Amino acid sequence: MDSFFKNIEKKTGVNMKDILELANSLQNANFKDEKTVRGVIKRVSQIANKPVSKDMEDKIVESIVKDGKSLDFNTISNMINKKK
């Protein structure tokens, strides 16, 4: 299993320990709380090494908090990676 994670780390440049810690923190997070959602967005941005503008952060927060979108790493990652 370790080699599986090492391959992902090599291809993506993302540390699997960071991903697993993030996944654990998402399990009990309150996604109706704007502050929590902003914290998760910032964490994903750091892990993915993709800066998120204030405008983009606001759009993601609105989408999750107000529109009730489910939140997981892929959802946020997809939003961060979208071109404007």
Summarize this structure briefly.
This protein has 84 residues and is mostly helical. It has helices spanning 2-12, 16-27, 34-48, 54-66, 73-81. The protein has 5 helices and no strands.
Summarize the helices and strands and which ones pair or pack.
Blueprint: H1 2-12, H2 16-27, H3 34-48, H4 54-66, H5 73-81
Model description:
- The chain has 5 helices and no strands.
- The protein has 84 residues and is mainly alpha-helical.
- The protein has one domain.
- It is globular.
- The mean pLDDT is 80.
List its salient traits.
mainly alpha, 84 residues
**What is the terminal-to-terminal distance?**
37 Å
Which outline best applies? Answer: globular
Mean pLDDT across every amino acid position: 80
Radius of gyration: 13 Å
Helix content: over 70%
Q: SSE string, helix = H, strand = E?
A: HHHHH
State the total count of DSSP E strands. Answer: 0
Low-confidence region ranges: none
Oligomer: single chain
